[in-house]
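Priority: low. Protein: Response regulator transcription factor. Input follows.
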Amino acid sequence: MIRVLVADDQELVRTGLSMILDAQPGIEVVGQAADGREAVELARRLRPDVCLFDIRMPGMDGIAATRELAGPQVEHPLAIVVITTFDVDEYVHGALKAGARGFLLKGAGPELLVQAIEAAANGDALIAPNITARLLAAFSDTRLGRPPAQPVEPLTTREEEILRTVAQGRTNSEIATDLHISLSTVKTHLTSIMTKLNARNRVELVMWAYETHRVHR
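Result:
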């Protein structure tokens, strides 16, 4: 059972998201919050598998709340998916830099919402397809002033192949099918890649792939 915390300052939206998720087999909404500060407090107390945060909330917004729970300084970061009405580059950049594992627009629909929650719970990252390439590439452009970090030891040919598929938005299961390898093998390679790149999550792997021109817009 994937335990989810939902935070949105609009009660109607918060309730609607919770109803959609509660109706899914294997997902349970364990808490709701009306602002970022309440969301952080609930998340620390309940330790949900995934947090679903709106960006624009009073007091503490979703990006700040994400940073509190999943930022670079957090020893045991939570899986967070950010959802918003606004397709604004700065919001996406801020959410990803704060440690979010997913980014969705509220008009994405129930199916993509559920996929994002499941992906985050499984250690994957899902970003709305209509903004993925543009925003990830744009985000990497903001870091062109410094050379990308080099791995402690070179990636193997298979690891390079898996990194490119991750950067193309493929999930672990899809990578396993595409490359004709087992799911456990994919996870083993991903762990190795993250260790070599000192990356915390799949989003950071994608950023590095763009920065090093392994994938292009």
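The mean pLDDT is 85. Strands lie at 2-7, 27-33, 50-54, 79-84, 102-105, 126-127.
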